[in-house]
Write a structure and sequence with these properties.
This protein is α+β, with helices and mostly antiparallel strands. 38% of the residues lie in helices and 14% in strands.
Length: 1877
């Protein structure tokens, strides 16, 4: 029983400190009883809560108000303060002195009634009833009654009423009905709820939903559960109370345990800035004060809004619970919604009353909690039963089994205070149960079944609502209340008197009387019905996660079981084969559980001794299991392994045993205190349960596996079965709690002691276990384990330097000074001791261990740790002595001649780098990586050789290497090696040959060795000068002593030549060169010794008398100069000038005036331009002495020189550097402005103008250029027949635009492609250039030529284009490298990321631009205009464009010899800066690698792909050059110009007898040698068309990513060092050593491993190899392949001539049979239909129908072999083409028909070559063959008489031959066949 009311208080207005303000404070006038109750002290602060908005006088009498405020005392008890406030006139003493104004104001207001004098002020007075019970209506009635007695002046003593009210007692719960009367003729009925655990809500929940709506209330619900701050605003206090009460009712069965103030007084508003969560209500008047609260969720009840601040995240309910709850709430609140769309809605349904709706809403939330917490009792650990139950909740297991580990909402709820209260209150196994217990135990299955059936859900909700309603209103027919109320408007009447002062003694006497009576009465103890709380079914996941990749497939579990049984049976090889599959399977939870179960079976009496190999296997599997465990261990895997790691062991030596725990320490789970706590409580529960089970089952009690079940996450099924067999710990506890009161005192004491010692012994056991898993094996090294950070986090409270630094240092390497680093052993021990002590403190205090025991434990822990460290030292010592597991022996790489090892193999793992073929990605094939082996550093390469770690891949050798010189980036990485789980140091080396070595160093490689490797690598990569590169140092170590001497004897003259030349050049260059030039080539102290040249066949006449030169002081060449001249003359560029007929080297006297150009030796001393060749082509009319001045206008002095001339149009191609500020631009800008006194610069500008004029004059067509010349304007307006292959990307241009040059330029830059784009970027019209236009176009940089207006009288025109700078090429190349060789494992990047990265690199866009500009220049040259390419410094993009133009225009450069010449001339002689761009030396290290030459080769590759028959060399040749221009194996691509090469003595190679016997120094020489041996550089498809100009498509969509970037061969490394790439020959199957019969000639080719070209050479290479082999067998000297090839081609040509037909010059013709048919064989699936016409002989009688090219491509093979088919396979009596009418509504089609007399059938095919028969007409079914008539759709050109019909028993076939004669033949043949039959 409880008092209905504890205190009655009368509070009145007391004037405030500021008199006259009308504000005051509350004063308690009287309170009853005056003494506090012992069990319930008087609550403080009532006077604040009576008037939450503050005590204020008011000018009019307001009606009385009522609300209930809630106060919470220090013991979390809630006191309900019912406040009834009414207003009384102020007594004069109280009234503030009014100023005149105030009185006026008061007077102006219209008075509500004449009864009240206008200037009167009213003070509030409040009656307060304080109670611990929440009976709102009863309080309202009682206070109302007191007020009524006072106002109406009833003849009832107020003292009696108040006395009766305070002495009234009622039951708290139990559903009883009690009628009370306060002695004023009143009657009230109080109903108590059935159970007090269910909250009473009246209508508050329903009102809350009405005010805020479903979504808002759900948001508030989640916010309250996840401990956010919630503030309600409303103008009504009662509404605030109701809303807060409603929200709490929704949270049931959880209790809200934070600050709860439904009505907060104004004076206490600062409470809102408290850091703890709260639910508070505030009057809307104070809304402004709540604005600056940043982390408070504000619910405005009057406005119906909920405002969530940006910084607050409310986690939503997990799906599908959220959507289910939402739809259920909709059904309750808006039943009409379901029927809204019905065509015939039923008559209106009766909606529930508000009270009922309230219960229905609560029922929905009750169901929600039941689904959320379903099965929670299976995760309770009962730690103590007596004297009071101690219960813990295994949160991780609960989340894991619900499948909601990631769910933010549930995680926060389980960590919250409310849930902790839920566990301690509801976890108790023996207690009274309520609706929620029933629901969660018995109804979950029903709820799951009802999920998708709304009407059943609604029915269930209504059932629950009934129960909730019944709980609040157990007696439906309540007797009517009878309580007097004041009359209408009574508050306006002048009260007879103020509320009287009551007589305390009377009230106190009534209270004392009642108390005495109660003491005499026997205590009414309501017996609580306690029962065992039902546990319900085991839990299931909320959402069945079917999407897991590793489903619980039985096959996987089978593999795990087999592997373990092989390990324990000692079948190690079998186990090794299965191990990779097991490790993959262990990603799945089921497989991990299976592993723990299987391992349990092999443990006898807590110990299992293994041999070394078994131990290794078991440890690897355990590590694999644990590495996917989170710190929470939600699936109980670590928990199940914990007993196993202390069971499996191996003997290291007598007396020294190593346990598995020393090898599995490095997982995050071991340093997580929550894991240890859950494990500890689980074990304690098992032992406590065993304590109370009957002695019979005692033996198997503790070991009963299932009882750890819920904790350790056994599958729910097993637990259920075991639960049937044996009682769970909760059942045992429940039984014990029931018996407890019946036991004697001593027995109780004994049980408590037993339990306490059980917990204590477990604590000791766990202290040991934790030291096992936390102390590292090698405590001296104390290497920081990654996860050991956990310890640090826990220690961060203690400010020990050790631990705090530890937490932050996880990612750092071992040798940092952090964590356990470099600390003494004791520090490790200290950290572990502190960790264990903290754990012991926590669990022991929670489990009620006595303080003596706890002290004992604290003394014990350091000893345990110390003992364990001593044991570990012995284990560590012995484990080092173990013979190491056989690591694969290091495979030595084969080296090139002259290549030497600098560092012998360091053991490393080669890790996958994102090219997924290597790791068995989507392409299939084995996982070659990761591989285990060694990295070697030689003078030439970095080489990895090793074997894949995956044993299934077999004994494959993996090789990956790249030249040291091609290294572009080296970075240290920390990686997890494949085998072991801890971090290792690694290196990632990236090379510009598109190789990547991502290596993790083996443990045995110390960090010093790794550092030495890096230093050596760096030294080799960046030698101090070029002489340090491999091309110079190769093999020099042995011959260094002798070399200089021999050189001295043999060539004194050359040495002096070299010196003189360089000296003269330096003299003559003068100061201006040095200052003007940005780049100075390095000079060397010792110069090399060039050797004398050998005369070449091509002769260029060198005349003796040279014109007087401004440069050389002497008039004639000195002998040494003459020698220089001879050397210069034999350079590549000179040979090419002669081939092009560009003039000879002669004197001014004998100069042939007819030649427009001449060769000038003006630069022979490299004095004018150091980066140009010695001999240059200039216009005939230009004097040498003016060239010096002209050169000043150009960057790097690179003035315009001719480099090629078109044989057809005689237009020339010139190249130069970009212009300086003056020069042409100045010349155009200020055309005729005479300057006072022309400076030297101006004169050089004029010279320059003259020079360009001379170039124009030297052109054959320049004369007509001035008259009516068109510019580049109308690109597509006029057609012009251009011969040659077309493929350019141009679209139509604007006609007649004024500022044309800029227009063209922007178009070329790809910014403004005009006109409709064509497929493939082909031109919209066949030609776009007008026949007449400028004689010379200058292609320059847009930025440089800005604002230049071309003058129409000039004979040249500027074409400004936007070009990319070298830095853009560098950046683009870096991104391309990243795209092709990502460096991170393939899983981390999405499939589209490669394409995205490729696009972002913009590499293909740059190639597109180059091709586009080149095609433009080709067009201009082809149409007769000359072009000067004048971009940047003239040695990067200029070189690319000029080379491409020549390649596209001149077929000679597309031969092997011509391409070599092109590269030597344009790239080497004209000074492309190979050393600078390739960052060959230390000086260039900062500038980085710029792949200008590689970009050119890529462009050539693109053209080659589009025109495969136009190039003599193969794609391999391009890749070979791409590789070796950076490899430094040859000297060809070293240094920046001919000048530097001469200075180093490189230019003139050693010839004749003096040629050294060692490897070639020149790449060209090597290519020549190799070409003689093998056709690897030769393109068999080479069948050029004469004088062919190529115009490739250049749209990005037509470009292909070069496979040089993406393909690799792991079997042998890059295939470009031919000597290394040729592995041992494959043994043929027939010669098998075991003498078995050969099974197959096939071999498996793995992508990315084998070289496909070698494994499966093309047919011609195979035939040539076969020929060579046969010749060798016959003992004949084998012929060179080239000779054989030439003979075959010649034979084929003569054969073709005899046949009297022309044939393409390709060998592909020779193998084709003599049936001629036009057949397009697709040589490649490219955008360009470059087809080779196979001509096959056909009968004259029939004409073939061309088939589609694609089909032909598919069928071409069958054609080639058709001649070999035997006559038996197919009898063709007669054949030819007929048109056949298809079935009904089908068109006529031409088919190839074969009449077969033998098989008596008429067959038809798609075409002649087709081997697949499309249909057969059996002649046996033919009834007649008759003449026919043409039907619709028949061929138009055919004579009517050529039609005939064949009628069979099934249908009539309509045929049509080509002419009447053929038709007659077919009819005759068919008739004869029929008659023969």
């Amino acid at each position: 029983m409880a008092r209905l009311a504890d205190y009655f208080v009368l509070v009145a207005f007391g004037p405030g400190p500021r008199a006259g303000s009308g504000e005051g404070h509350g004063q308690i006038l009287q309170r009853f009883p005056e003494k506090d109750w012992e069990d319930n002290p008087f609550p403080q602060g009532i006077e604040l809560f009576c008037q939450p908005s503050g005590w204020q006088l008011c000018p009019e009498r307001n009606p009385p108000t009522f609300f209930i405020a809630v106060l919470t005392d220090i013991n979390s008890e809630r006191h309900y303060c019912a406040c009834l406030t009414f207003w009384e006139p102020v007594e004069p003493s109280q009234a503030p002195a009014c100023t005149g104004e105030e009185e006026e104001e008061a007077g102006e207001r219209p008075s509500p009634s004449a009864l009240v004098p206008p200037s009167q002020l009213f003070a509030p007075k409040t009656l307060v009833l304080v109670s611990r019970l929440d009976h709102a209506e009863v309080f309202r009635n009682s206070l109302g009654l007191i007020y009524t007695i006072h106002v109406e002046g009833l003849s009832v003593a107020l003292e009696n009423v108040i006395g009766n009210l305070l002495t009234c007692t009622i039951p708290i719960a139990g559903g009883s009905q009690r009628t009370i009367s306060l002695g004023a003729g009143d009657r009230q009925v109080i109903q108590t709820p059935l159970t007090d655990s269910l909250p009473v809500s009246c209508c508050s929940v329903a009102l809350l939903f009405r005010q805020l709506g479903i979504t808002n209330v759900l948001a508030l619900f989640c916010a309250a559960l996840t401990e956010h701050k919630i503030l309600f605003l409303s103008r009504s206090y009662q509404r605030l109370t109701d809303a807060c009460r409603g929200l709490l009712a929704l949270l049931f069965p959880l209790r809200y345990s934070f600050t709860y103030v439904p009505i907060l007084p104004a004076q206490l508003l600062e409470v809102l800035s408290t850091p703890t969560p709260f639910i508070i209500g505030v009057n809307s008047l104070f809304q402004a004060e709540t604005q600056e609260l940043l982390d408070v969720i504000i619910a405005d009840l009057d406005g119906g809004t909920v405002t969530v601040p940006e910084c607050v995240h409310i986690p939503p309910l997990p799906e599908p619970l959220h959507s289910q709850t939402h739809s259920a709430l909709c059904m309750v609140l808006d039943p009409e919604l379901e029927l809204a769309d019905l065509a015939f809605p039923p008559p209106t349904t009766s909606s529930s009353s508000l009270k009922m709706q309230d219960k229905e809403l609560r029922a929905v939330f009750l169901r929600l909690f039941a689904q959320l917490f379903q099965g929670y009792r299976w995760c309770l650990h009962i730690v103590r039963i007596h004297p009071e139950p101690v219960i813990r909740f295994h949160k991780a297991a609960f989340l894991g089994q619900r499948g909601l580990v990631e769910d933010d909402f549930l995680l926060k709820v389980l960590e919250g205070m409310a849930f902790a209260g839920f566990v301690s209150e509801r976890g108790v196994p023996y207690r009274p149960t309520d609706l929620f217990d029933e629901l969660v135990a018995n109804e979950v299955k029903r709820m799951r079944a009802d999920e998708n059936q709304p009407h059943r859900v609604l029915r269930h909700v209504r059932e629950l609502a009934e129960q909730l309603y019944k709980n609040e209103n157990p007696y439906p027919a309540v007797a009517m209340h009878k309580v007097q109320r004041p009359g209408e408007g009574s508050h306006l009447r002048r009260a007879p008197r103020p509320f009287p002062r009551l007589d305390e003694s009377t009230v106190q006497w009534i209270i004392d009387q009642a108390t005495a009576k109660l003491q005499g009465a026997p205590p009414a103890v309501r017996v609580e019905k306690k029962a065992t709380v039902p546990s319900g079914p085991p839990m299931a996941a909320i959402v069945e996660r079917n999407g897991v990749v590793h489903a619980n497939s039985a096959r996987r579990l089978e593999v795990v079981r087999n592997c373990i049984s092989y390990v324990f049976e000692g079948k190690m090889l079998e186990a090794k084969k299965l191990l990779p599959a097991v490790l993959r399977a262990l990603k799945g939870r089921a497989a991990r559980r299976c592993l723990t179960r299987e391992l349990h079976l092999h443990v006898q009496q807590n110990r299992a001794v293994l041999d070394h190999q078994q131990f290794d296997f078991v440890v690897r599997m355990m590590n694999c299991c644990l590495q996917d465990c989170t710190a929470m261990d939600e699936h109980g895997i670590a928990a199940a392994l914990l007993p196993l790691v202390t069971a499996f062991c191996r003997k290291l030596s007598p007396g020294v045993t190593q346990f598995a725990y020393s090898c599995v320490q490095e997982h995050v789970v071991w340093s997580t205190p929550q894991f240890w706590e859950a494990m500890f409580y689980g074990d304690v529960q098992t032992h406590i349960r065993a304590l109370y089970l009957e002695p019979a089952s005692e033996e198997d009690g503790p070991t009963a596996k299932g009882e750890v079940g819920p904790a350790e996450g056994g599958t729910p099924g097993e637990e259920a079965e075991e639960e049937e067999e044996e009682r769970s710990a909760l059942d045992v506890a429940s039984e014990q709690r029931r018996l407890w009161p019946t036991l004697g005192r001593d027995t109780q004491q004994e049980l408590v002691q037993k339990e306490e010692s059980t917990v204590f012994s477990q604590a000791i056991h766990y202290a040991n276990r934790m030291s096992y898993l936390l102390l590292p094996l090698d405590s001296s090294k104390s290497r920081l384990l990654r996860e050991r950070a956990g310890l640090g986090d826990l220690e961060s409270m203690s400010n020990s330097a050790v631990t705090n630094s530890m937490a932050g240092s996880v990612a750092e390497s071992y040798d940092t000074e952090s964590g356990f680093e470099d600390a003494e052993t004791s520090d490790v021990a200290g950290a572990v001791v502190r960790f264990i002590n903290r754990f012991v403190d926590k669990v022991c205090t929670e489990s009620g261990v006595t303080s003596e025991h706890l002290k004992g434990l604290h003394v014990m822990v350091p000893d345990i740790v110390q003992m364990h460290i001593e044991t570990l030292e012995a284990v560590h010592r012995e484990s080092k002595r173990l013979p190491p597991i056989q690591k694969p022996k290091l495979l030595r790489p084969s080296l090139l001649p002259g290549e030497e090892c600098v560092l012998d193999g360091l053991r490393v793992y080669l890790l996958p780098d994102g090219r997924e073929e290597g790791s068995g990605g989507s392409v299939g094939g084995p996982a070659l990586l990761p591989a285990e082996g060694a990295v070697f550093l030689t003078t030439y390469r970095v080489i990895f050789t090793g074997m894949p770690t995956d044993p299934l891949v077999g004994e494959q050798v993996v090789v990956r290497s790249f030249p040291v010189a091609s290294l572009t980036k080296e970075k240290r990485i920390s990686v997890q090696a494949h085998m072991d789980q801890f971090l290792q140091d690694g290196l990632q080396l990236r090379s510009c040959t598109f190789q990547l070595l991502k290596m993790a160093f083996d443990e045995e490689v110390g960090s010093e060795s790794a550092e030495v490797f890096r230093k050596h690598l760096h030294k080799l990569r960046y030698p101090p000068d070029v002489k340090g590169t491999f091309a110079f140092t190769a093999g020099s170590i042995h011959t260094a002593g002798r070399q200089p001497r021999t050189a001295k004897e043999k060539s004194p003259s050359l040495r002096t030549l070299s010196r003189n030349l360089v000296k003269n050049a330096k003299k003559t260059i003068g100061r201006q060169y040095v200052t003007r030039k940005k780049y100075n080539p390095p000079s060397w102290e010792q110069r090399g010794q060039p050797v004398p040249p050998e005369d070449q066949e091509d002769e260029i006449s060198v005349s003796e008398e040279l014109e007087p030169s401004t440069l050389t002081p002497a008039l004639a060449l000195k002998p040494s100069d003459r020698l220089t001249m001879n050397s210069l003359v034999e350079r590549a560029c000179c040979r090419d000038y002669q081939r092009l007929g560009l003039g000879t080297l002669s004197s001014s006297l004998s100069r042939a005036k007819s030649e427009p150009f001449r060769v000038t030796p003006v630069n022979r001393m490299y004095a004018i331009c150091r980066s140009y060749p010695g001999l240059l082509i200039v216009p005939q009319s230009i004097q040498d002495n003016t060239l010096q001045r002209i050169s000043r206008c150009y960057r790097q002095n690179r003035f315009p020189v001719v480099c090629w001339r078109s044989g057809r149009s005689k237009a020339v191609l010139l190249r130069s550097g970009g212009l300086h500020g003056k020069g042409v631009v100045g010349l155009f800008k200020a055309q005729n402005a005479p300057s006072p006194g022309q400076s030297q610069a101006d004169s050089s500008s004029l010279e320059q103008e003259k020079y360009l004029q001379a170039v124009v004059s030297a052109m054959p067509r320049h004369a007509d250029a001035a008259s009516g010349r068109n510019t580049l304007s109308g690109f597509s307006s006029v057609h012009m027949a251009s011969h040659g292959k077309w493929g350019s990307i141009r679209a139509g241009g604007r006609s007649g635009a004024s500022n044309l040059g800029v227009d063209v330029g922007s178009r070329l830059a790809g910014k403004d492609l005009l006109g409709p784009p064509q497929p493939n970027g082909a031109p919209s019209e066949p030609g776009f250039l007008r026949p007449q236009r400028a004689a010379l176009y200058i292609i320059g940089d847009k930025a440089q030529l800005k604002g230049v207006r071309p003058d129409p009288l000039q004979q040249w025109e500027l074409v400004p284009i936007e070009v990319f700078e070298v830095r853009q090429v560098k950046a683009s190349f870096k991104k391309l490298l990243k795209a092709c060789v990502p460096g991170c494992p393939a899983g981390e990047q999405s499939p589209t990321s490669y394409l995205r990265l490729l696009e972002e690199s913009e590499w293909l866009s740059q190639i597109h631009k180059l091709l586009q500009v080149s095609v433009l220049v080709v067009e201009l040259l082809d149409s007769g205009s000359s072009v000067l390419v004048s971009l940047e410094d003239g040695w990067d993009i200029t070189t690319q464009v000029v080379s491409l133009v020549q390649l596209l225009s001149d077929p000679y450069y597309r031969t092997l010899e011509g391409f070599r010449l092109l590269v030597e001339k344009e790239w080497l002689s004209f000074g492309h800066r190979f050393t600078h761009r390739g960052a060959h030396t230390l000086a260039g290290q900062s500038s980085g690698f710029a792949p200008i030459f590689l970009q050119f080769l890529d462009c050539v590759h693109q053209v080659h792909s589009q025109f495969p028959m136009e190039f003599e060399f193969s794609q391999f040749y391009l890749k070979f050059l791409s590789y070796h221009h950076v490899s430094h194996r040859f000297r060809t691509f070293l240094l920046d110009s001919d000048y530097e090469r001469i200075e180093l003595g490189l230019l003139y190679e050693e010839k004749g007898e003096r040629k050294s016997q060692q490897a070639c120094k020149s790449v060209w020489e090597y290519v020549d040698r190799l070409s003689k041996k093998t056709p690897v550089f030769y393109n068999y498809m080479y069948a050029p068309e004469d004088s062919e100009v190529l115009r490739p498509y250049s749209n990005v969509s037509n470009l292909k990513v070069w496979d040089f970037y993406t393909r690799e061969t792991l079997a042998e490394g890059p295939p470009y060092d031919w000597e290394l790439a040729q592995g041992p020959p494959e043994p043929l199957e027939e010669e098998r050593p075991d003498g078995g019969a050969p099974q197959s000639r096939r071999r498996v080719i793995w992508p990315c491993y084998d070289s496909r070209l070698r494994a499966q050479p093309d047919a011609i290479s195979r035939l040539l190899e076969e020929l060579q082999r046969l010749e060798t067998e016959l003992g004949r000297p084998s012929e060179r392949w080239k000779e054989t090839w030439e003979r075959v081609k010649a034979a084929q040509r003569s054969e073709a001539r005899q046949d009297g037909r022309s044939t393409p010059s390709s060998l592909l013709m020779s193998s084709v049979s003599h049936h001629r048919r036009s057949l397009g064989v697709y040589l490649q699936e490219g955008p360009v239909g470059s087809t080779l016409s196979l001509s096959l002989d056909s009968d004259q009688s029939s004409s073939s129908t061309p088939s589609s090219g694609r089909q032909a491509a598919r069928r071409s093979t069958s054609t080639l072999y058709s001649q070999f088919q035997t006559a038996e396979s197919e009898n063709r009596s007669y054949e030819g083409t007929l048109y056949k009418k298809g079935a009904f509504m089908k068109p006529w089609k031409a088919r190839w028909f074969v009449l077969d007399k033998t098989k008596h059938q008429l067959r038809y095919y798609d075409h002649r070559v087709d081997t697949e028969c499309k249909g057969i007409i059996d002649l046996a079914e033919v009834e007649s063959v008759t003449a026919g008539t043409p039907t619709m759709g028949a061929p138009k050109t055919v004579d009517e008489k050529a039609f005939f019909d064949v009628k069979t028993t099934r249908r009539v076939y309509n045929f049509c031959a080509q002419d009447v004669h053929l038709a007659q033949q077919w009819v005759d043949r068919l008739q004869s066949c029929l008659s023969d039959a």
